[in-house]
Amino acid sequence: MTEGSDKGNKVSVGIVPKVRAFTAVSGNTLLLVLIQVDSSLHTPMYFFLGQLAFMDMCQTLTVVPKMSADFLTPGNRISPVGCGVQIFLSLTMGGAECLLLAVMAYDRYVAICNPLQYPILLSRRACMGLAAGVWIGAAADALMHSVYTMHLPYCGSKDIDQFFCEIQSLLKLSCSDTSQYETLVIVVAIVVLLMPASIILASYTRILSMVPRMKSTKGKQKALATCSSHLTVVGLFYGSGVFMYMKPNDPHSPEQDKIAPVFYIIVTPVLNPLIYSLRNRDVLGALRKLVGKYRVLQQN
Questions:
Q1: What architecture does CATH give domain 2-298?
Q2: Alpha carbon of 160 to those of 14, 113, 151, 200, 269: distances in Å?
Q3: Would you kindly state where each structural domain of the chain is located, as residue ranges?
């Protein structure tokens, strides 16, 4: 199988995903380091934020290196096994992030609406269990899609009109009837996208009804800042996911089919650490302390 890309300006265009990938990996790595080294960030909210940063970093590393190589030398081949692994890892990270965003909304709901029960409901054991459930659920879903897609018969051209191995592009190459499977994709998308989305909606409906009743102005501002950052990330991720997977039979143009996955694989991982750090005093405070320690070490 070969992965397609535009031939014009291939060198200059190929640099762009590399730069964005470096930014995404660097930003998320820094966020992970801050969460690990600063004791003030050892809370359930930042535990889940660390999981999100790790998912974004893995998602970027799964796709962008091969994508960059294809920009520079179009027509590169990828083995069926390599294609299947790329599909599995990409779907695992995407599905895990989708589920994790719902868990993060639940975390904020408990913290704001039931603060006295927060240490019990979001204990370390509970957080580990929720994170494990997210990873296992996403991996199981990804494995099902990967195995089925790679066992389809492919006839004629095996050029993938996408920057990486992606289910929708492979279905177009299959010479068998994939209508039933496309229906299954819609059903699974409803479960993986809409059920977590309903949890997020319900959580923030309760949160927004609770915030005006807070007596502390500082508490209101902190709650709104944290929630607005999370909702921004939710909008970026779910918007591209719904566009791409909820309507597989829609007559998207080839350009549209390429934009959405690149958006949540490259752009979203770049924006997530910026969104959470620039509007989060705790993260900014941890960053200042880390920079201060670094300067002290340099002076010594």
A1: Up-down Bundle (1.20)
A2: 18, 48, 16, 35, 24
A3: 2-298
